[in-house]
Structures
1.
Amino acid sequence: MALSQMQEQLPPALSPQQVEALCAASASRLESLRAALKAHGSALVAFSGGVDSTFLLRVAVDVLGERAVALTALSASVAEEEREEACLLARRIGARHLVVDSKELDDPRYAANPSNRCYFCKNELFTLAEAKRQELGLSVVLDGFNADDKKDHRPGHQAAREHRVGSPLADAGLTKNEIRAWSHRLGLPTWDKPQMPCLASRLPYGTAVTVQRLTQVGAAEKAVKALGFVTFRVRHHGEIARLELSADELPRVADPFLRAALTAAVKSAGFRFVVVDLEPFRSGRLNDALPASALALPVVD
C-alpha cells in the first residue's frame, strides 16, 4: 500500500451510531488498556494535547488517579495555541501536569531536517520524560502511539523503543477511529481534532529548522485559522507559502474577498507570495517526495 493511502485523512464526522458501533467493537480493547495501566501502578504520560495522548491521559487518570502524571515538552516547534490547549486539557482532566523546555533545535541533526527528524525530537522528549519519571518515582513513561500508527512513517517510535517507552494504545489494538469514538463518549473535546504535528513538519525535508521559520509558519497558520479555516497546512518554501486546504474548505477561496483576506493574512507572517495547492490537504504530503528506502525506520548512531 502506498504511503499516501495509509495516511490519515481528515478527522471523521462520526455519527452517534458509528460512535456506538466503534465503542461496542472495541470494548474489550479498552478493558485491556485499563488492565495494562493498572498493572503499571503509576505512569508518566507524554502529553501533547492531541487526540491520542488526551485519551490516554484521561484513562490513565481514571485508573491511576494521582499516580498518573502528564508531561508536555515545549519548544519553538509547538504552536502557541497547542501549548495553551494542552494546559487547559490537563486541567480539565484533573491530571498533575508538568511542562518542560525541549531543546531539540540545539541538536544539529534535528535542525538539518532529515527524513528521520522526528527521531531526534522524540529522543529529546523521552530523555526529559525519563529524567522526570525517575525523579517522581513513577513506573513507566507512556506515549500515545496507536495501532494505526504502525502503518505509517514514524521514525519517532524508534526513539520510544530505545527509551523503553510504553505504547499501551497500540498494545491494546486501539485504532484512531476507536480512540475518537471513546473520546466522544468520555466528553473529550479532542475527539474530532485534526492531526496537529509540530510546526517543523511544514518545512520540506532538507530545509533547515530555525526558530524564525517556525515562528513564521506558526503566525501564518494562526492568521488562517482566524479566518475560519479548520484543516489546513501552511508549507514553507522560502518566500513562498504553499497553502493546503481540506477538500471541504478549498472551494472557499473562490470568494475574491476571502481570497484577498487569506493572502493578506499569510503575507503578514513575512511571506512574499502565497499559493493555494490545488490538491486538497492530506496528512504526510511531504513524505511523498521520499524514496521508499527513506520510509523504513533508520538506524541512528
2.
Amino acid sequence: MSQLVDLQSWPRRELFEFFSGMSNPFYSVTFRLDVTRLVRFAREQKISFYYALVYLAAEAVNSVESFRYALDGGRPVLLDRRAPSFTDLHPGAEVFHIVTLPLEETIQSFCAAARAKSAAQTALLDHEDSQDLIFFTCLPWVELTALTNERDFDPDDSVPRIAWGKYAEEQGRYSLHISMELNHRFVDGLHVGRFCEALTRLIESL
C-alpha cells in the first residue's frame, strides 16, 4: 500500500526536483557497523547471522520515512512498508538465487521463514520486480569496503541496495562495513545517519 505525496506541501519538493534533473541521481556510501551483539545473539539463538542482519536492516530502513518514498507513474508516493529481497546460496552451490519474503513479527520467525523458503526455492527469482523491495546481498568471503550493483539504468528506481561482507574481530569486538546505493531524489546523508542509528539501536537491544 502507498499514499500519493502532495507535492505542493512536501518539504522535499525542491530537492526532489533538483535531483530529478540529473541523468544519474544515485550515490553510494559505506560505513562501519559494530555487530558484536548480533554475532553473539545469532550464536545463542542458533539462527543465521545473515538472515538476522537482513531482518534488522529491513526494520531500520522502514523506520526512516525517506527510505519508503518511491515513484508511481512519475509521482512520488510514500510506501507503507518495504520487504527484503536477498541473495542466497544452497549448501555446496556456486550459483545464487534471490529470496523475497515479507518481514515476520520476530527475528527468529523471520530467520526460520527465510531458511525454509530459500531451501525450497529452485529458480533464480520467484517474484516480479517491485519498487517496494530492499535489495540485499552479502559477500561473506571478503571484508567488503564498497560495492556497486548492476542495473538497468532508470532514474526512477527507488529500491535501496544494501550489502556487506564478512565481519572482522578485533579485541573481542566484531564489525563489518555496510555499503548502500541510494537515489538522492529521496534519501540524503542525514537519512543514512538515521538508518545507521536505528540499526545500531536494534542490534544493541537484542
